[in-house]
Design a protein that fits this description.
Distance between the termini: 28 Å
Strand content: 15-25%
Order of helices and strands: EHEHHEHEHEEEEH
Structural class: alpha/beta
Number of helices: 6
Strand order of the largest sheet: 1-8-5-4-2-3
Amino acid sequence: MSAKRFILNETSYHGHGAIKEIVTEVKSRGFAKALVVTDADLVKFGVVAKVTDLLDAAGCAYEIYDKVKANPSVAVVEGGVAAFQQAGADYMIAIGGGSPQDTAKAIGIIINNPEFADVVSLEGLAPTKNKCVPVIAVATTAGTAAETTINYVITDEANRRKFVCVDPHDIPVVAVVDPDMMSSMPKGLTAATGMDALTTPSKATPPLPLGSLPTPSTLKP
């Protein structure tokens, strides 16, 4: 039987009130300023404020990048890279489902591996050399588990396709799964993502052997 590799977050928090530990992690790790990566709807409906209110109370600096859309594009990632640099940030807090999490992973990889600034060269198992900018990943849905994986998906709008990236360097340093962050989501979305987490695909994805390159037959966008 060939060896299998499991890569997990350094730290994961689960349960009611877990978001309060974000400030603990920020201070213990000596982070100075966050780029909060999210989408405009989560800002509009007060979901992001559940985290930023904690940052404000603790005197933690941050700026918000809320340009993320469903199925984040190359342009969204490029915009996030520029926003991170302009903010003078040294870490990110990704708030949302798979799209903000995936965007933050791509931004963080490019910041520390600028040779992949075109974004599309990250497809597959890109030979990145440096770890992603630290990401604290805060889930608002139950379906993707993007806060705990090394995978992310970006949309190449120019060529009308999605591509999958698999990089051990991109995993968030902290994952926060707090049901209070999901309570304000639409009931249909909550139910759908919950069922997504509980069900098994009809064609199971086999583990990738060490050093293997992901292909469309082994990875589902």
